[in-house]
Give the backbone structure.
Amino acid sequence: MVKEYTHFINGRHVKGTSGHFGDVFNPNTGEVQAKTPLATAAELRSAVEAAAAAFPSWSAMNPQRRARVMFNFKALVENNMDELARMLSMEHGKVIADSKGDIQRGLEVIEFACGIPHLMKGEYTENAGTGIDVYSMRQPLGVVAGITPFNFPAMIPMWMFGVAIACGNTFVCKPSEKDPGVPLRLAELMMEAGAPAGVLNVVNGGKEAVDAILTDPDIRAVSFVGSTAIADYVYRTGTAHGKRVQAMGGAKNHAIIMPDADLDQVTDELIGAGYGSAGERCMAISVAVPVTDKLADALVARLKPRVESLKVGLSTDADANYGPLVTREHRDKVKSYIDMGVKEGAELVVDGRGFSMQGYDKGFFLGGSLFDRVKPDMKSYQDEIFGPVLQIARARDFDEAISLPTKHQYGNGVAIFTRDGDAAREFASRVQVGMVGINVPIPVPLAYHTFGGWKRSAFGDVNQHGPEGVRFFTKIKTVTQRWPKGGVREGSSFVIPTMK
Ligand code: NAD
């Protein structure tokens, strides 16, 4: 029986009315397990109205009370961790331990948001002029929206609504139509935690819903995470309609390996960061850059048997390294990039295309692939593949290695493996990428720092979560006050006030 998802508007599940649906697959079997209603602009509008109605009292509530709702929500998510992780694995295809990681990374942002009374404090100057005080305060924007990708259906919605709601905004979330089960459940839990109806709404949909968000006059800010083409579109359209927009896009993350690195450690790290979650992570390592041919030969010799012996399995298999990809279409796209790499002349050291899972031949599985001698002019290098494919691009020296991620169109994450502090320091300073790991393969910043790439990996100036997240979801107001002493009049002044 195929389940039909709903929207979650004003604290209630609402049946979709458009008659259009997206498919939610079970990636293990290839079967359609649920249908996601694709909202019309009118359905999206009803969520905005619910959020707008909830805003005055939610934003006026003292921040400590809002923080208590966040504390309750955190506890509820923890209590429901197993159910949420299973749902996530069954829709996305990542293994259960990884789904728990997805939820946990989101919860870390909720923990950060529990500190909102402190985070929203403004500044104060006493006696800025004689008898004049100046103070500033951060105020929420109003109704704000988040549009999220399929690959982190728990973490990324929590990045956005965690900070936005704690700041006093009300929220409309438009999750990926491929795996909306977890975001819908999170909205139920937020209500259970004490958020009033309308504070967190989930509207399912595709382009029509996104366009309705980008043009709605009452939505003040839009946070987007997804592929670069859509991020670019969302940024341009949203800002043209007067909204504050942050739009995170695709990635191609390089790992530079210096000749002095611990190669066994690097091999372990590359296997985890390259193939975990079937490579469907915006911070996955997709290109390894060994410096010198000698090191490259040694690295390939170590990686080859490890890639050949990766354990691909059902998303519910606790022993699997990774599970199926999210859809057949996406799996086939990844395969076509492997075909392309071969045609372009890269050396396919391990070919995962032939893998099939016994008893699950309709599942969206793909074995791990490894390419060597990948060159910067190849399209399979320039594009994001987003699958279990690691490419090796050999570099002659440090300068050539640093130039690869620096010149690449994407600039999300990058890593360097070395024992040389001087080289690492220079690398971190020079490389044109937003998040840098030094002997750390997936440098996803913690919740109280901020997440964001450079170049075509992010549009807009403000990062996700951390202090930048608070800035994104608030506006600053500065008040200059004077309380005149009784009976003293200063008369009119026709010049701009300055400090005497
Ligand atoms: P996607 O761009 O296909 O979808 C993202 C969102 O945009 C979804 O909600 C989707 O419904 C909506 N959308 C899709 N097509 C649209 C269209 N034509 N018009 C308007 N809206 C549309 O991305 P995805 O496949 O769900 O996610 C994977 C991508 O996200 C990868 O490129 C990955 O690198 C990127 N990603 C980036 C980050 C980051 O922080 N930089 C994090 C996670 C994922």
Remarks:
- The first strand starts at residue 3 and ends at 4.
